[in-house]
Write a structure and sequence with these properties.
single chain; mainly alpha; 2 domains; two-stranded parallel ribbon; 85% helix; 1% strand; globular
Length: 472
């Protein structure tokens, strides 16, 4: 029988999946309308602004969202004054100051794009970035408190208001309207999230300093993730043009299903993991790494099989998204799954610097390979770079995890598994798309769906076996 913890994890995971699907998939929800209203060139401008907003949101959080999620468990849940409330207020004040600086320096940093000047779209991206930062930190508190329905409520406000306004304003004001609509939705969501998480702060310079020292390396981790999202897009825009940038964004949108799956499960899992005893925490990485990889890969295979049809729904044919690019991008998701397990172990041990080192190395590899492979292989080179860089970050983080838990994780086996699964994804991507080919794709998709359900169930069973006390 499933344990209470197991049932709670599955329930929370499903609810978080809805919330994250709505929040992370907001760009996907507006994509069909946005690509048709704006066209490839203007959509490329909007994409450039949204990438900037995502970067600034990372800077403005200062990593406090991750630190608060961990610090929350160091204090009684019923405390009237808390350190995490102090850190939340510090993040809002410092984030607002950084947003002002970013606005003033906009004419300088906007030069990273060759064809996008300091215009309304980029100016509104600063506001969007701050609103997203405030909302992200508030959502971390809701995660820690396991208030999953409040989490989804905040996201719903952002999505319904932001998505509606983005489409309406894009028709009138182009890329600036799209970004402005999303900014208004994120601002309302942030205000609601802050109201729901209100707690009086316990002001202490020592606690604030300790919290910021834990937070800042997480900001480096998030910035490294930004490098994954920005470096390829900046270089694609420079080397291949705005139209290719728009096509690449569609390819990433197709990969959102396995990304949301892993992010939702980790969102639900971290509060559970932090509450476990030390011996169980040490045992879990070895039990889960391979199983989680296979489960995510099964979902990724389904995306590859259906990507020609889904791509046609998301964007007109002139966006021209190669299926091999989609296959490589979704392959990065099952490689990244192992890193998420390592992240849980290292963040619990408050080794934010170890996570930052792994992420920084992966980001450096990402930039170097993008500079080499994008001019050489175009969008395929960018997608391959993402896959390799995630492999690097996962291996480095898992190495440190081995030290923390005091046991080996058989990384050589994991790398061989990744390689074999990537070959499978590429093979599926070249299947024909005529009537016979779609029949074959459909049959394989059914088998993949069965395999995905079985893999997810095995992962759940393994987790429950690890956390269930052995009768004496």
């Amino acid at each position: 029988m499933p344990t209470v913890a197991g049932r709670g994890l599955v329930r929370d995971g499903l609810v978080y999946a809805v919330g994250l699907a709505l929040r992370g998939g907001l760009s996907l929800l507006v994509l069909p309308a946005a690509t048709r209203i704006l066209g490839p060139e203007e959509f490329g401008v909007a994409t450039a602004a949204l990438v900037i907003a995502s970067v600034l949101s990372i800077v403005f959080t200062l990593g406090c969202n991750f630190a608060i999620l961990r610090i929350y468990f160091d204090e009684p849940e019923t405390a009237e004054r808390t350190d995490w409330a102090m850190l939340l207020r510090a993040q809002l004040l410092l984030g607002a100051a950084l947003a002002g600086v970013a606005w003033l320096l906009g004419p300088l940093w906007s030069g990273i794009y060759d064809g996008v000047p300091w215009s309304s779209a980029l100016q509104l991206a600063v506001l969007l970035g701050f609103a997203q930062a405030a909302q992200t930190t508030a959502l971390s508190v809701l995660r820690a408190a396991r208030r999953v329905y409040a989490f989804v409520g905040v996201v719903l406000v952002q999505v319904v208001v932001g998505g509606t306004l983005a489409v309406l304003l894009a028709a009138e004001h182009g890329p600036a309207g799209l970004v402005g609509g999303l900014a208004l939705g994120a601002s309302l969501g942030a205000l609601l999230g802050l109201a729901l998480t209100y707690r009086r702060p316990s002001w202490s310079w020592i606690s604030l300093r300790a919290g910021l020292l834990l937070s800042i390396p997480f900001a480096a981790v998030m910035l490294s993730g930004w490098v994954f999202g920005l470096s390829d897009r900046v270089l694609i825009e420079r080397f291949l043009g705005l139209a290719s940038l728009g096509s690449y964004q569609v390819a990433y949108a197709l990969a959102i299903v396995p990304i949301l799956l892993t992010d939702a499960l980790q969102t639900a899992w971290l509060p559970h993991f932090y509450r476990l005893d030390a011996s169980t925490k040490r045992a879990l990485p070895g039990r889960l790494a391979t199983r989680v990889t296979v489960a995510v890969a099964a979902v990724a295979a389904g995306v590859v099989l259906l990507s020609p049809a889904i791509g046609a729904l998301l964007a007109p044919t002139d966006f021209d998204v190669p299926v091999t690019v989609v296959a490589l991008v979704v392959s990065a998701t099952f490689v990244r799954a192992s890193y998420l397990i390592a992240f849980a172990v290292l963040s619990d041990a408050k080794e934010s610097r170890s996570i930052a080192r792994a992420s920084s190395l992966g980001a450096a590899v990402n930039v170097a390979l993008n500079l080499w492979l994008i001019p050489l292989w175009g969008l395929t080179g960018a997608a391959l770079t993402t896959l390799v860089a995630y492999g690097v970050i996962s291996i480095v983080a898992l190495r440190r995890t081995e030290i923390v838990i005091g046991s080996q994780l058989n990384l050589a086996h994991l790398v061989r598994l990744w390689t074999g699964l990537v070959v499978v994804m590429l093979t599926l991507s070249v299947l024909p798309t005529d009537a016979t080919g779609w029949t074959l794709r459909g049959m394989i998709a059914v088998l993949v769906a069965i395999a995905a359900c079985a893999a997810l169930q095995r992962t759940r069973n393994s987790y429950e076996a690890a956390i269930t006390p052995v009768p004496v």
